[in-house]
Amino acid sequence: MEVLQEGDAFQQQQEEQEESGPIRIERLQDHGVNIKDIEKLQQAGLFTVEAVLYSTLKTLTQVKGITDAKANKLLEVANKLIPTGFTTATEFLKRRDEVIYITTGSKEVFAHVVCSNLT
After folding, report:
1. Is the pTM of this model over 0.85?
2. Which CATH superfamily is domain 23-118 in?
């Protein structure tokens, strides 16, 4: 029974190491990316999900057979696998439009708060 537990511990350790290092580009296939597209990316020198994520849209579309739609999907999937916290200007603007402003209705209070924050 101990042998199985040691084997399970070894397998878990291997999985943790895989998760902490670069993610192989083949993982994109688990998220709906065609294997032929993955092979095209490898031929272009992209072997990890990180390499895809940090590539520009222009770089991805220069790979033969990768269209704008496929490049956007690749970037979307790569971002799901490796969340970078990056926000596009369009997404930021959408969030900014949802900001709620609260006011007291008093110009004097507003002037006092604004002036006290400037000093």
Report:
1. no
2. 5' to 3' exonuclease, C-terminal subdomain (1.10.150.20)
